[in-house]
Amino acid sequence: MAGPGKQALRYFLGTCLPSVKQNAVKVSVPRLELDKNIFMYFKEHDFVYAHDPNQKCNVGDVVLIQLLPEKLTRLITHKVVDVIYPLGDIVDPITGKKVVVSKYRDDVKETNQLFGESKDAFDYDKAPPRGVMKDKRDFTYQETYIKYHEDPNDQDPYGV
């Protein structure tokens, strides 16, 4: 058991969100909270800022964060340990196969071969890796800022 001056290192899994802080990412950490009236758990989200000096996280990535022994700033209380799953590339940790929602990509491909593939079906083998659409459709790396008012003439997509 840790003494009163020591704090156990705690790890959390969360999803990266857009952040206005320099060298930090905003992370949504899900947790279950018990409603004592009906004895059911409901998903709640805690939002924390994690130190990311190398900027290895993009919006939508699933990351592993660690609680810092002492706060870096008033808001930054965690640090990014690793990017577990980049957005769009979910891999089953047990089998190592790529996953689409709740099915393996191999199973989806096999089902499409059996029943005939739709013309509009998405082909994962021909899809480019993430980052190809940078500056064309992907602006998640751009520096964001907080909008304090809505102006219909100002259509800047980087405001949060």
From TrEMBL:
<dbReference type="GO" id="GO:0003735">
    <property type="term" value="F:structural constituent of ribosome"/>
</dbReference>
<dbReference type="InterPro" id="IPR000266">
    <property type="entry name" value="Ribosomal_uS17"/>
</dbReference>
<dbReference type="InterPro" id="IPR012340">
    <property type="entry name" value="NA-bd_OB-fold"/>
</dbReference>
<comment type="similarity">
    <text>Belongs to the universal ribosomal protein uS17 family.</text>
</comment>
<dbReference type="GO" id="GO:0032543">
    <property type="term" value="P:mitochondrial translation"/>
</dbReference>
<protein>
    <recommendedName>
        <fullName>Mitochondrial ribosomal protein S17</fullName>
    </recommendedName>
</protein>
<dbReference type="Pfam" id="PF00366">
    <property type="entry name" value="Ribosomal_S17"/>
</dbReference>
<keyword id="KW-0687">Ribonucleoprotein</keyword>
<dbReference type="InterPro" id="IPR039193">
    <property type="entry name" value="Ribosomal_uS17m_metazoa"/>
</dbReference>
<dbReference type="GO" id="GO:0005763">
    <property type="term" value="C:mitochondrial small ribosomal subunit"/>
</dbReference>
<keyword id="KW-0689">Ribosomal protein</keyword>
